[in-house]
Amino acid sequence: MFDLLNVLLYGVLTGVIAYLLGSISFSIIFTKLFSHKQDIRTMGSGNAGATNVLRSVGPKAAICTFIFDFAKGILSVFIGRQLFAYMTTFTSIEGIGSGELIQYGAYIAGFCCAMGHIFPIFFGFKGGKGVLTSWAIIALIDWRAFVMVIVVFIIVFLFSRIVSLASICAAASFPVFTLIFNYFVDYQHQSSAAGPTSMLYVVSTVIIALLQAGILIYKHRSNIQRLLAGEEKKITVKKKN
């Protein structure tokens, strides 16, 4: 019971820290810095994301947004792993290895950071769609899934030149690749670098991936409506006179 309480406590601590990090909306911050204190949520598509910053403000602000949104995802997962790694020095759960527990910390941190980005407490719970931050999270959680998700994004984008469509397809592929690698590779062959993989881990991680993908796709609902109507814009860079 004491060990389970430790896991719960560290899970909550990890989630809160990651959520607060995710709530730092760099698209809003850099737009204010580069465009005379305007709010990116009142410009262009109204989305607090790098693509809208690129279209509405310019490449400098967009690059800064890209780097920092990606970095906060990496930092969140790193903190989650470190907290759970420390916890495993005095906590053990029967049937779950320390490496698997540490991965739980990574998934919790990643999911909560993405939720902070989408629903930031510091900016009225109105944030971005979480694509860049989610990429960083996936990269640290499972590089194999990250590579495949990026491949999906690139292929769709090259054919369509529409960032939102590529993002939706990439998000939808995340739980699929999570299932493929965590079950068909790691569980079936017990080949995970984190140690033996349990069915609980497979189910938990696929559910988290489904939730994260579902929320990302839901946040793109206005884009989906424009896609169906043939009105979604292709990527362009704002030209200054």
UniProtKB/TrEMBL annotation:
<feature type="transmembrane region" description="Helical">
    <location>
        <begin position="197"/>
        <end position="218"/>
    </location>
</feature>
<keyword id="KW-0012">Acyltransferase</keyword>
<dbReference type="GO" id="GO:0005886">
    <property type="term" value="C:plasma membrane"/>
</dbReference>
<protein>
    <recommendedName>
        <fullName>Glycerol-3-phosphate acyltransferase</fullName>
        <ecNumber>2.3.1.275</ecNumber>
    </recommendedName>
</protein>
<dbReference type="Pfam" id="PF02660">
    <property type="entry name" value="G3P_acyltransf"/>
</dbReference>
<keyword id="KW-0808">Transferase</keyword>
<keyword id="KW-0444">Lipid biosynthesis</keyword>
<feature type="transmembrane region" description="Helical">
    <location>
        <begin position="165"/>
        <end position="185"/>
    </location>
</feature>
<keyword id="KW-1003">Cell membrane</keyword>
<comment type="similarity">
    <text>Belongs to the PlsY family.</text>
</comment>
<keyword id="KW-1208">Phospholipid metabolism</keyword>
<dbReference type="GO" id="GO:0008654">
    <property type="term" value="P:phospholipid biosynthetic process"/>
</dbReference>
<dbReference type="GO" id="GO:0043772">
    <property type="term" value="F:acyl-phosphate glycerol-3-phosphate acyltransferase activity"/>
</dbReference>
<feature type="transmembrane region" description="Helical">
    <location>
        <begin position="135"/>
        <end position="158"/>
    </location>
</feature>
<keyword id="KW-1133">Transmembrane helix</keyword>
<keyword id="KW-0594">Phospholipid biosynthesis</keyword>
<feature type="transmembrane region" description="Helical">
    <location>
        <begin position="104"/>
        <end position="123"/>
    </location>
</feature>
<comment type="subunit">
    <text>Probably interacts with PlsX.</text>
</comment>
<comment type="function">
    <text>Catalyzes the transfer of an acyl group from acyl-phosphate (acyl-PO(4)) to glycerol-3-phosphate (G3P) to form lysophosphatidic acid (LPA). This enzyme utilizes acyl-phosphate as fatty acyl donor, but not acyl-CoA or acyl-ACP.</text>
</comment>
<keyword id="KW-0812">Transmembrane</keyword>
<keyword id="KW-0443">Lipid metabolism</keyword>
<comment type="pathway">
    <text>Lipid metabolism; phospholipid metabolism.</text>
</comment>
<dbReference type="InterPro" id="IPR003811">
    <property type="entry name" value="G3P_acylTferase_PlsY"/>
</dbReference>
<keyword id="KW-0472">Membrane</keyword>
<feature type="transmembrane region" description="Helical">
    <location>
        <begin position="12"/>
        <end position="34"/>
    </location>
</feature>
